[in-house]
Design goal:
about 300 residues; 11 helices
């Protein structure tokens, strides 16, 4: 790796945290970058002033499409001498309680956030093992260490990613391959506006008589308020990712924001029962959850 620039593949690099990581590495003449996004999102690179150069490639890749994953990894192996760093960043989140997610929606969330990153890892590992070096950085979340109401399927996908990559840390260590889970908390960004809703969760949010209406109403407002006020931004997490690339022995887990560290220490210091009761008590508007709303108890015209 000292003889050439290490090659870094970043998925979901056209927006959000992926774009911030890409910009951070672009500002340093230390790595060769392959930035990927779905074909429908490739135009965003041009809008951001990002164009191809000898050390910066742009490639369309839907992480859920096996043929596209294979094509990008094969091109890197044959044209650039192999992949040194895989940054699994592509992902999205579904806003819904457990009852409001259909099976197909659960599978789609797991596919993007867990199954596809694992398949990319499997494609990258043979070359890394042969060269006896490599780094795999998976963008997880505080949602991968703790779950929030109305975000169950998202947390499930991140919990799965964390579990598999913890096992992977042990498995590939003998070949000098480093595995890290980056765990950001709330970020000051418009990311909360990109959360996907299911048909049921949209209906529940719009219907004051729905039993889960207070859950959505309070949690959505709480998340939006927090994400507009916290000091941490994608650029700050990008700096932590860059630090990982330069660290000779990166950790398995890296809480990337102050609130992420806070939750780590709460989990370590408090007995599990007290920890969950404390978080439950802190939920916004929790006194109204599960209680009949005015819309539910209002008499009908017939009555």
């Amino acid at each position: 790796m000292s003889m050439r620039r290490p090659t870094v593949l970043i998925t979901g690099a056209s927006t959000g945290l992926g774009l911030a990581i890409a910009r951070r590495l672009m500002s340093r003449d230390t790595h060769r970058l392959i930035l990927t996004a779905r074909a429908s999102s490739m135009a965003r690179f041009a809008k951001e002033g990002i164009v191809e150069t000898d050390r910066l490639w742009l490639r369309p890749m839907d992480v859920t499409v096996a043929e596209e994953r294979q094509a990008v990894i094969e091109e890197i192996e044959t044209q650039l001498g192999g992949l040194d760093v895989l940054i699994n960043n592509a992902g999205y989140s579904v806003r819904a309680v457990v009852e409001d997610v259909d099976p197909d929606e659960r599978i789609a969330q797991m596919d993007v956030n867990f199954l596809s990153p694992m398949q990319l890892i499997c494609l990258a590992l043979p070359g890394m093992r042969a060269r006896r070096r490599g780094r795999i950085i998976n963008i997880s979340s505080v949602g991968g260490m703790m779950a929030m109401p109305t975000m169950s399927v998202y947390s499930a996908s991140k919990f799965a990613l964390e579990g598999a990559c913890e096992a992977l840390w042990y498995e590939v260590r003998p070949w000098g391959i480093h595995v890290t889970l980056v765990e950001p908390g709330f970020l000051n960004s418009d990311g909360f506006e990109n959360v996907r809703w299911t048909a049921q969760s949209r209906d529940a949010t719009a219907d004051p008589a729905h039993p889960y209406h207070p859950h959505y109403q309070n949690m959505s407002a709480f998340v939006a308020r927090i994400m507009k006020r916290v000091p941490a931004k994608p650029v700050h997490v990008a700096r932590r990712v860059h630090w990982l690339l330069m660290h000779p022995a990166p950790p398995l887990r890296l809480p990337a924001t102050l609130d992420a560290w806070l939750f780590v220490w709460l989990r370590r210091l408090l007995p599990r029962g007290i920890y969950h009761r404390l978080l439950y008590a802190m939920l916004p508007g929790i006194q109204a959850w599960g209680k009949p709303t005015k819309a539910q108890i209002a008499p009908t015209e017939e009555e």
